[in-house]
Fold this sequence. Notes:
By secondary structure, chain A is mainly α. A five-stranded mixed sheet of chain A has the order 1-2-3-5-4.
Amino acid sequence: VAKRKRGAVAPIDPVRTAIRALHADSNRSRGLATVRSGIAPSLVEPFLAKLLEVPVYRGMVLNHLFPATITDIRPRLAAHIPSPQRDYVWNAMVLSEHVDTINAFVAQKEIFEHSILSSDFNSAQEALDRVRSECGLSLWFLDSQIALYQMRDGLSAQKSYLDTLVNTAGIDPNLACFCYWFSYRAEPNVSRDVIRAPITNIETHPDLSDAAKTFFIYLFDPLAIDHLREPVWVLAGAETTSLIDRYLALSLALKLETARGTGRAAYVRRALELLCDVDDDALSGLRTVYLGAPLGAPEGEQEAFEAFERGEFERAAVSSLSSILSGSSNSSLYELFVRSDPSGLCRLREQDQAHSLRAQVLEAVREVSFLGPGYENALARIERLALAVSHNRLSVRLHAFRHRQASASPSPAEAEMEELCALTGNGADPLDQLRLRALRWGIAGAEAEFPLSAAASLHDCIARGDTDALASTWSAVSAHRTQFYEGVAQLNAGAFDSAIALLRGALTGGDYLDQVDAAKYLFHAYLQAGQIDAAVKLVCSFYYDNQSTHAIFDIERLIDVVKKERSAVADDIGWANLLIIAARHMDTAYEAMLSDAYEDVLDERGVDRPSLMLPQDTPRAALLFFLRHGCSVRVMEDSVAFLDYDDVEAERMTLCTWLARHDPGNRDLYTAELRGLARARQLSSLQHQIESSKMYVDEQGVRSSFGTYLEDSFARYKALLEQPELQTATDTITTRIGKLLEQRDSDKAARLFYSLKLPSTERVGLVEEFYALFLDKFLFSPEFGLDTHLSTNVRHGTFVGYVRGAFARAHLVTAKGRGAREYEPNRHWDEKCEAAGVSCSQLLDSLSLFSRWIDDHLNRTNDDLLQVRRADEPAGLFHYDVDENIIGTLIASISSETTYDEFIELLFSTAWTQTEAALETVQSHLRGEFSDEVYRYLDLLVEGLPKGSGDTGLIEMHDAIAQARTDFAATVEKVCEWFKRSGRTSEQAFPLDIVVDVALQEIRSCYAERDVRCKVKVEVPYDLSGRRLNGIIEILYVLFQNAILHSGSFDPGDLSCEVMDVQGYLWLVVTNQLAPTVDVNTRKQVADETQQRYAEKHAIERVRTEGGSGLSKIWRTAEYNLRVPHKLEIDVFDSGLFRSTVMLAAEGLIA
Amino acid sequence: MIVMLIEDNQLKADRITGFLSEAFDVVDTPLYRSYQSGLKAALTDTPDLILLDMTLPTFDAEPGKREGRPRSMGGRELMRKLSRRNVSTKIIVVSQFISFGEGTDAITFDELMSLCQQEFPESFCGGVYYHATSDEWMTELERLIKGLGR
């Protein structure tokens, strides 16, 4: 061995140094990662080349390329620090070792994508199978297979496949998670918006590295290109899965680098050179940009674009369709085809499988391009289709198309997307050529040659505003197209007046889409020229005809201009209408400006309500639009010109009536709105009627219940009046008996006196007897009395439920299961606390305690205080103290001239006077002691909140308590309205569907914490008599309540209510599903017993008590309130379906 | 001093009125319970000060009458309407909510007050967070009212 000369410095071989560094780590993989993270970019190639020469390193470098089984895929982030300067070349070198496999994959991928577009799922499966056998498994394969299952076999098969995957023994948890996401994304009803929410959570996750986040986003939302912060991070995950995933990730990263102009051209170019043998069209755009390779657009595709620009539409249609059918994924062709042949869908279907995916794409593209009525829906469909074919080149094209069509001012992200499309495409689209040329010139300088097609040259002239060149380059077929192109060129040249003149001319020719194109540019020309009024008019005039045209104009920019200089728009109605469009489609925040613009329009005309400005002659479209959309209840509610809400609604009804006459094309809409307004009024009036008729006594029933007894007694009383000497004698006798009885225990004597019911013979005694007897019936008649109505209308869950609703709406109270001792945990605040990262056990305890306080307080008030005071209800607030004054007044009011009817009226009047005093007592109690106690509980709840909760995300809790205070105060006021003497019953007839709605609103108010969903079906040929209204609502209320309370679950599920006429009987049918925990057989037995009890005697016994099923109240209501023959059926089916049917003879109910 | 109260919560209104009568020489505190009645009164009357709730119903709650839509930022809308009519009566917002609106439109009390300051510099004099179980709001309200004359 030759000795090294002392002092001589041997040249350092950096590659050897790097390999030594790799050896320095006992873990070679870790050593390799360390070297990769720090090696100079210029050494990446020689270093890797060296490694590939040595089998042991080669195996290490070429690891994770061909997973044979699911368990072989173990997705991880690469251990080295990702770097574009190193990783593009590194990966390209690794991939270049397996060019044949990549080419095989690319070939099968194209077949797969083409087969999917033509919905030839068998071919798609064959292609996938070949990929698996030739290239092994990959994330791409699994994602594609799941998507294919979904498209071919449906959700169940897709999930079954997922189930198989995730249950594979030894599957990597990351992979299982990825598969779950692929499956979720493939579900037919999962839209992009749905996907975005969880992905936003990933993006903000504190524990994930940026590279990991980027890789996840790349996998799960392939359309979120703008969320891929650093292109090379996409590779960080793909390196550990498979060759295929690595190739696809690298391909995307290189395109993103290029589209973003990140200045890493040298590395991208070198990577492309290393991949020179890869036969993939998807790289052709990159090769053109970096390597100057000619564009490889198929002749047919290019010809389609050329023919279109020449105005040879049939030829363009034939060429574009042929390309689409042969598998082109250039979505510009789809646009071109629908523009060349607006009815071309039939032509496609003749040559393609029915309902193929590409037919769906074409249909959606057509709807969007033509701004059809299904425009918004079609935009969503396109996004969904783009997601469904997310690995297809068509996907990013569709995504870009969707954004281009939906936004009049492209964002930087959208511009990046368009460049990505150009890089992914084949350059057939003339606009793609211009984009690629710009990118090429950015890399190689503007002197670099870049031949353009004739159509691209035309667009180049237009973009440069070179009108001279335009004329010499192209001779367009139609004068309209010439005018349009020249107009756009003039606009780009800054000659706005000329542009406006030309584009206004172009507005009148061509087909609708030509006009739309002209309008888009004319709008910009107006804006640039400062002709704001004209721009507003242009937007509005297009929108009046087609309400999808809002997307073609940058309305927000226009509004910003006007905001700065309001006087720029002289047409105040036009301005208001522009704001209507903005509020409808862009942001509801524009409603505030619209409200002011509405006032300006009216002020300008010296009126304060729009009906005063209605012209008698035929109105302009602008006025019709303003009246129709700008003078809505919502806008007019802001104005101080109206007395109350009814007044606003009346104004709207006046406008609708006028509009129906002057805008006959939309008459049906106005008529429907009028019906809706009338219905809302009826509903409101009905609700008020129900709420103000709770304190009710059936006077006719009470009157008839006395028989002749009271009449005979009254006759005796009158005899006493007419014979004073007789009165003196009887007075003396009665007084003596009374004194005798008083010698014993006075209370007992009084009780005996009454219990013996000695027939009174003196005047005072007789009147006391009359009134006591009358009051008993007035208050306690189970059929007609006040307490019965108090029980049915107030105590039977209504009061408690209604007041509790104020706290349930704020999620401050939870329920207590039947028979349970503890309240259910408050899940709402539990989740809020968890999200805010604060401990919540103390809070949940406080809420549980609060629920108990509130319920105890409400139940005490309901059970003890909202009662007629008597021996067994000593605390009842309905206190009827029959003292000397009352008796004296009665005596003074009865003369020998008084008739029996007048006498009865007098008794009613006296009883109502006492009732009204009692009602005032109740109101006073509710507003006073009752409310004070509730406020005290709320204060205690606030005091019990965790300290510092205002700083830790529980701000909402403070707001909820504040809201509950206000809500509770309003609720008490409403409840106080119940405690007023019932007014006269309305004679107005009501449709039964409104009656059901009122009952549902009642039940929802009382069970605010539950989600009461009900499907209503009303099929009766008549309306309900207003006099029977309360009764029907009471019955429906009890049926709904029964379904909710006895469903066996806190969530009663979906209720259904059917109202129908069956052979002269009105059937009210409420159905719901019992919870699985309910024993159906026991429930059947209970139902049978209940039906048996549905008989007069048993039912009437329970009328004045609360609890139970409430069916006795149905009986009473049907028997005494509605007074019609009635039946009840309760069915419990083996399936757990529970159905209650009340059948009422319809004759007495119909209006 | 006449202080107009635009407030739909009677209890809160009572406490504010009680505080005003104790702390200031207030001769009248007319109460309006909604955006509509408050706006109408503010356009026609000339109180020395308006104490304005932020969350209001559109119309007064009355038996048998509909209140229209609830307005989570009804106070701000009312101020905008007054500003349009060049009414520059001094206004202090008294709200018992810490946040307004929902979802992405949600805004905190402080943010909302800053917005009001920007939008209505002529009339808006500040905001007070009212709390039913604390008296801190009184101190803040007193400070703002005393600062009006400066």
